[in-house]
Fold each of these.
Amino acid sequence: MRSLERLDVAGKRVLVRVDFNVPLREAPDGRREVADDTRIVAALPTIQELRARGARLVLASHLGRPGGRRDERLSMAPVAERLRELTGAEVRLAPAVVGERVAAMSGELHEGELLLLENVRFEPGETSNDPELARGLAELADAYVNDAFGVAHRAHASTEGVAHLLPSAAGRLLEREVSTLRGILERPEHPLVAILGGAKVADKIGVIERLLQLADVVCIGGAMCFPFLAAQGHAVGASLCDAHDTELARGALARSAEPGSARLELPRDLVLGDRLAADAAHRALDGVDVPDGWMGLDIGAATAARYAGEVERAGSVFWNGPMGAFELAPFQAGTRAVAEAVARARGVTVVGGGESAAALAAFGLEHAVDHLSTGGGATLALLEGRKLPALEALDGAGVA
């Protein structure tokens, strides 16, 4: 993966694929505005470095899932406004992704100026990696930089196709994400403790199996624990659990018993609710056999303390996925305990994106970890050992 310093950008137009897929909200005056600018801020080091080196920047990102159609609710206009505020630069918003007018605007850029393309997913050829769209994007620039780790696992026109058509390199965020995540897998300080939560085993079985090979301890929480408990013969009541996930969990349990595998830790107590709601009836359960009519919605206090203890003794920590329905007050204690343990851990701490990042932010701990990934699916794909199309494209691209 080629580094940014190997790319000649002075006076050149550089197409930068960023991940500005940020949440929006309605402002008091009715305008849509950025609700969380974390991903925009994460891209600033690359943007500012390229501007300082005299580049003329054309920024490309998706926002939401418009399905290849123009949807004004998903316009990049609010993102352009926030980017202006963060950079102090003039940020022009293109009326489209490609086309004559967009090409003219790209050609009019001066050194250090920014042009933000409209939502690349307004183009139906983006997600199908249409060669014609990739060529249209390449015509807007003299070089290409990918700084969008969150979509590095997608072979799209703006992430993979265009990289073959221009001198290309990785941005600082993409480079740091890959280096950090590979480092915790290939060169971790032991013991390596992984805390995995979330909803479905099927979504993370590849990561679970890889970490069983590489980590010292793997702790399972969230709704994902119930297929494991069911595979052990425990009753799960109305908890989220299906037959396919249970079979996958049964296989993982068998592999965890093999010599050299990580120790697999499961909850020993739970917090139950009669439904998934903030005002649900709830109670602690000393044990893991869930009665009929109840669902497990958080790990219990003893399990949270046990998982926190593993984190505190760790040389390296990887956390991905909440321990329960942390958005609801009765069921947030387990996730909070893990988040606080990760925040004060002595070892290197790496947190996967998505809900784990949201949990850290909810508890005011987002700046207390060593690395907070901007990726979701890309993080999991890299941890599983799968090839990421966007990275492969950078490896095969030319250098100016």
Note: The CA atoms of residues 34 and 79 lie 6 Å apart.
Amino acid sequence: MGLGHRWREVEKMYASVNQLFGDIVKVTPSSKVVGDMALFLMAKEMTAEDLLQLDEHHDLSLPNSVVEMFSGVLGVPPGGWPRKLQKIILRGAAPLRGLPSDNLPAAKLDHEQEVLEKK
């Protein structure tokens, strides 16, 4: 993204976004999502505070990874996401409820075993 020369600013923005997101546990993919938002804000010359000033009817194309995380695709941290930020990121859309796996069909292990045995 051409921001290598601004590495110290990237570090500070990463820390700022991390706090904005609720100081979440950083593992792959959450660490990447925090970085995606940090780089996005820098590229747009925005701050975390600027993001919080938006309403749910904004026209920014936020990184898909951020939208997916705040919708619940990657799960939800204890206590949930910061509500105001979630409304901004999801543009007012409702997040998923329950665990991401709740909507998956049950595994048919007997069938899968048969398929594997034939192979």
Note: The chain has a mean pLDDT of 93.
